[in-house]
Specification:
Elements lengths: L1 H16 L18 E6 L5 H9 L16 E7 L7 E4 L2 E6 L2 H16 L10 E7 L5 E5 L15 H13 L4 E8 L8 H9 L6 E6 L11 H4 L11 E2 L19 H41 L7 H24 L6 H16 L3 H4 L2 H12 L9 H12 L3 H25 L1 H5 L1 H35 L3 H5 L5 H5 L11 H41 L2 H7 L4 H7 L4 H30 L1
Helix pairs in contact: 1-7, 1-21, 7-21, 8-13, 8-20, 9-13, 11-12, 12-15, 12-18, 13-15, 13-18, 15-18
GO cellular component, one term: microtubule
Organism: Quillaja saponaria (Soap bark tree)
Protein name: Dynamin-like protein
């Protein structure tokens, strides 16, 4: 059981060292979940005397008014017999105090450092550890004495401020309340009992301690209180003075008396509470560690301090973005399939909408054939007319080809935006996020221009050179194909023109089918493939030319995020330390 109390001592010290005082904040608190003994009483109720009797040393500040102005977490450590007693403050970790008058002065000085030389109070605790052969392992929290009025130098709110501070400690269900009440005052007016009853009406976790029995009026005694008749608690009342002060007729109460007995009783109760709370504390710690790690992961790593480290960090973050972008294209993440949809649905549908048969209407054929002949009518076949009809039809494929290039460009831009939003580190650095986004967009624009040029060239190639074999394979009919003996007027009859239109449409459809396959290849080669290979190449080149100050500006981070990361890291350190301490106690068993 002593291991359990030592465990709580260590975790409480770690809490204070790392800024966890149990106050309301945006961070999870471990302090509030730890079992503790809070010493509560009115001013001049004898709180200091009780604590000093437990320790066996005079070490607390004395005086009138509010002497205790900050919570004092007092941790007692039993050491081997014959060892020299000493004290240590958490804020002075390498200094040992063997003079307890100096301990008293340091408590006063440390209080003034936090509150100033005034009568203000502070919720930030002072941690004091005392090592002695004459104590039991125990942790007590001495709270400012309750008061009824503000005195000179104190704000009007001091009464409520102290009550609120005391409440914040004793309202927790894992807190044992050590209620100090002077015997020479009516128990009904006891500040300690009154405030304890507010949070523990059944007295399940309140230990009553009666002080100043030697100052009771003549003819009165404390038997009714000690026997629980005046105010019943679950645990027997304890008298803090020496047994020698108790009249002989009340010696049967001696088993409850004395500071050593009080300390052992408190230790026993604390051990019981700790034992019952450990599983819950372990569960809380494990869950909180996971939550803190997850949030730290979302916030990203802290910024490097040297120029080389910053440049390396930018490169690593950029590569992370680039990898996520590639994963979208390769199907590891969603979105890349939209490119195939352009080739499999959008482009074919656009080609179908061209309606070449309308382009090759009878009047259009007659017009182009006649114009192509010029002053010299064709002799056998209207070759120039064919060329013009084919060119005027094929050139319309430029529209769908250009639209396919733009559609894939839009998809790639969308995938860039998705990759940026999915790159955790880029959320951390807004300037870098903008710079990477701009660099990627500029690269995609260059790739679109190259793709559009190459793809439209494919169409233009089909216009500039016809496939001769197609026409050679056509059946030759001299009589119908243009016998020179026929009159010029027979040459432009509907049947003849219709045959020309059919031939041209057949050729154009063949070209269209070919381009339907070659246009996607050109787009993938010029846009998709290049985006995968060199999306940020220009950015990397320019990055190496930047001044260090400009590089640093890319890693400018929201100050609130930086502060949050620091706070989370400190709190995670606390929880991991507590986790290790609990595990060590478990293994020791």
């Amino acid at each position: 059981m002593e291991n359990l109390i030592s465990l709580v001592n260590k975790i409480q010290r770690a809490c204070t060292a790392l800024g966890d005082h149990g106050e309301a904040s945006a961070l999870p608190t471990l302090w509030d979940s730890l079992p503790a003994i809070a010493v509560v009483g009115g001013q001049s109720s004898g709180k200091s005397s009780v604590l000093e009797s437990v320790v066996g040393k005079d070490f607390l500040p004395r005086g009138s008014g509010i002497v205790t102005r900050r919570p004092l977490v007092l941790q007692l450590h039993k050491i081997d017999e014959g060892s020299r007693e000493y004290a240590e403050f958490l804020h002075l970790p390498r200094k040992r105090f063997t003079d307890f008058a100096a301990v008293r002065k340091e408590i006063q000085d440390e209080t003034d450092r936090e509150t100033g030389r005034s009568k203000q109070i502070s919720t930030v605790p002072i941690h004091l550890s005392i090592y002695s052969p004459n104590v039991v392992n125990l942790t007590l929290i001495d709270l400012p004495g309750l008061t009824k009025v503000a005195v000179e130098g104190q704000p009007d709110s001091i009464v409520h401020d102290i009550e609120n501070m005391v409440h914040s400690y004793i309202e927790k269900p894992n807190c044992i309340i050590l209620a100090i009440s002077p015997a020479n005052q009516d128990l009904a007016t006891s500040d300690a009992i009154k405030i304890s009853r507010e949070v523990d009406p059944t007295g399940e976790r309140t230990l009553g301690v009666l002080t100043k029995i030697d100052l009771m009026d003549k003819g009165t005694d404390a038997v009714d209180i000690l026997e629980g008749k005046s105010y019943r608690l679950k645990f027997p009342w304890v008298e803090s003075e020496s047994i020698l002060l108790i009249p002989p007729e009340y010696k049967h109460l001696a088993h409850r008396m004395g500071s050593e007995h009080l300390a052992k009783m408190l230790s026993k109760h604390l051990e019981t509470v700790i034992k019952s709370k450990i599983p819950g504390i372990q569960s809380l710690i494990n869950k909180t560690v996971a939550d803190l790690e997850a949030e730290l992961s979302r916030l990203g790593k802290p910024i490097a301090t040297d120029d080389g480290g910053k440049l390396y960090a930018i490169m690593e973050i950029s590569r992370s973005f680039d990898q996520i972008f590639k994963e979208h294209l390769d199907g590891v993440r969603p979105g890349g399939d939209k490119v195939y949809n352009v080739f499999d649905n959008q482009l074919p549908a656009a080609l179908k909408r061209l309606q070449f048969d309308k382009q090759l209407a009878m009047e259009n054929i007659r017009k182009l054939i006649t114009e192509a002949d010029g002053y010299q009518p064709h002799l056998i076949a209207p070759e120039q007319g064919y060329r013009r009809l084919i060119e005027s039809s094929v050139v319309t494929i430029r529209g769908p080809a250009e639209a396919a290039v733009d559609a894939v460009h839009a998809i790639l831009k969308d995938l860039v935006h998705k990759a940026i939003s999915e790159t955790v580190e880029l959320k951390q650095y807004p300037s870098l996020r903008v710079e990477v986004g701009n660099a990627a967009s500029e690269s995609l624009e260059r790739m679109r221009a190259e793709s559009k040029k190459a793809t439209l060239q494919l169409v233009d190639m089909e216009c500039s050179y016809l496939t001769v074999d197609f026409f050679r394979k056509l059946p030759q009919d001299i009589e119908k194909g243009g016998n020179p003996t026929h009159s010029i007027f027979d040459r432009y009859n509907d049947s003849y023109l219709r045959r020309i239109g059919t031939t041209v449409l057949s050729y154009v459809n063949m070209v269209c089918a070919s381009l339907r396959n070659s246009i996607p290849k050109s787009i993938v080669y010029c846009q998709v493939r290049e985006a995968k290979r060199s999306l940020l190449d220009h950015f990397y080149t320019d990055l190496g030319k930047l001044e260090p100050k400009r590089v640093s500006s890319l890693l400018n981070e929201d100050p609130a995020v930086m502060e949050r990361r620091r706070d989370l890291a400190k709190r995670l350190e606390l929880y991991r330390s507590a986790q290790a301490e609990i595990d060590a106690v478990a293994w020791s068993k």
